Amino acid sequence: MMKVQSSKFKVQGLSFFMLFTVYYLLFAIYGCGYSIHNKASLPFTAIKIGRIENKTLEPKLQDRLYRALTEQFLKQGVDVNPGAGYKISGTIHQFDLRVLSEKSDVAVEYEVIVKADFTLTDPSGNTKEFRNTESPFIISFSGPGPLNELIAARELASERAMEDVAMEIAAILIYQ
Predict the structure, then answer these.
(1) Less crowded by CB within 10 Å, the N or C end of the chain?
(2) In 3D, which of 117, 128, 104, 105 has the Cα closest to residue 176?
(3) CA 91 centroid distance within chain
(4) Contact, 69 vs 87, CB < 8 A?
(5) Which of 5-14, 117-126, 146-155 has the highest mean pLDDT?
(6) What's the rounded Cα separation, in Å, for the pair 33 and 69?
């Protein structure tokens, strides 16, 4: 008689655990603002990356943004193709380094600020502009060491900033 009661509690415990797991999973997926998208729900399946213009004094930003856009669209399931109907082009108009902290009157931590404008052209020729797109995250780096380490850290930070701008514009275009 004791074995029957014990197995009954095990079944009830297992049922409760399964119900809790399913509820938690559904809440985690749908309750946090996230949604699952498949390739068929994308507004376009291929895009052409047009001219990226750099109007700042920082060299090579246009190359970094082009590469970051390509990687980001590919991650999202959108093919990057020169013959695609949709075309994105952009202009980087701000790249600033803002001092976040100083030590003995020497800047030791910097923040990278990047702003860019983008234009999306659809196959029928209609354009949509996205102004002042910037990184949704704060990109910072430290530079208390030798100059070559400061320059290397700055390069990495500018690359991360371009990746974040690319991620932001891809999200705006894909999940409008």
Answers:
(1) N
(2) 128
(3) 18
(4) no
(5) 117-126
(6) 24
Whole-number CA gyration radius for the chain: 24
Q: What is the 3-class SS of 138-173, one letter each residue?
A: CEEEECCCCHHHHHHHHHHHHHHHHHHHHHHHHHHH
Q: How far apart are CA 158 and CA 70, in angstroms?
A: 17
Calculate the dihedral angle through the C-alpha atoms of 97, 136, 149, 94, rounding to the nearest 10 degrees: -30
Q: Which residues have C-beta within 8 Å of that of residue 101, sequence separation ≥ 6? A: 107, 108, 109
- Tens digit of pLDDT for each residue in 63-83? 999 999 999 999 988 899 999
pLDDT tens-digit map of 164-173: 999 999 989 8
Q: How far apart are CA 25 and CA 31, in angstroms?
A: 10
CA distance 133 to 154: 21
CA atoms within 13 A on the CB side of 163: 11
Closest CA to 158 of 114, 94, 101: 114
Residue found under tokens 């946090």: 32
Provide the pLDDT for residue 132: 92
Q: What is the pLDDT of residues 27-38, one digit of tens each?
A: 666 665 555 555
